[in-house]
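**Tokenised fold:**
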Amino acid sequence: MATLKELKGRIGSVSSSEKITGAMKMISSAKMHKAEGALKRLVPFRTQIETIIGNLISADADFTSPLTVARPVRRMAIVILGSDDGLCGAYNINIAKFLKEHLDRLHERFGEALEIEIHAVGKKMRKACGRFVSAHTHLADDVAVDSKSEGVKVKEFTAVLERRFIAGEIDRVDVLYMHYISAGRQRAVADLLLPVDSEAFSANGETVASDRPYLFEPSASEIFRSALPMYLLSTMQEIFCENRASEQAARVMAMQSANDNAKKLLDQLQLEYNKLRQQSITTELLDIVGGQVRE
């Protein structure tokens, strides 16, 4: 049975843990709101790019781009986003499970001989993806981005994927990540990045376009070739922002759960401490009364 001194030490440790988890929750919440803000700032730009491309498609103009060329899929890349840091609950595990399901669907569709290279973004995610390495599936070693990357690094990473697709080194690029819906809700999704599908510019089967008349200068084809890389970059930047927001949301929930558990344990220890202290006081009183009676 624990002594009063031992219980007091445990109460102090749990109380410190409760304060730490509470502080970490506040920090993660601030980071999540920052990522939400960045996500909101990206949406208008991407929407405008989608509208421009939607107008090109609806104009029935003659245009092509090497980024839209669909060919038989023999070798592909999967970009999967996770976290570099821990203490975010089952965040990375859930994405890794979704990757397993996605790999099964790909092999069913394209055959077991499909060569897959996994670009794992985040140290924790790379570790989680290690178990999927096989004869036809391997982890890429040249991932130059992490879960905190933004701006120039994301642009360079996206450009590398574009160049390799155009060169025929890979026939398809999928991106797996946690789609941020709200602070309490995120959903694992798989988006087709390359080749660019015209359905990406459709909403409920209708092309996203403005009803205003457009004059294309210099030409629809040149505008299309310039707008597509911008669309891919905005898509990838949005995905990285969603990943950061989802990671911090998961960390907020994990810290909230840890904080609640610490409070429950603190209440239990405090109750046990009070009982033991009351028992000690009662024993001392009995000793005092017993001594007086003997006198």
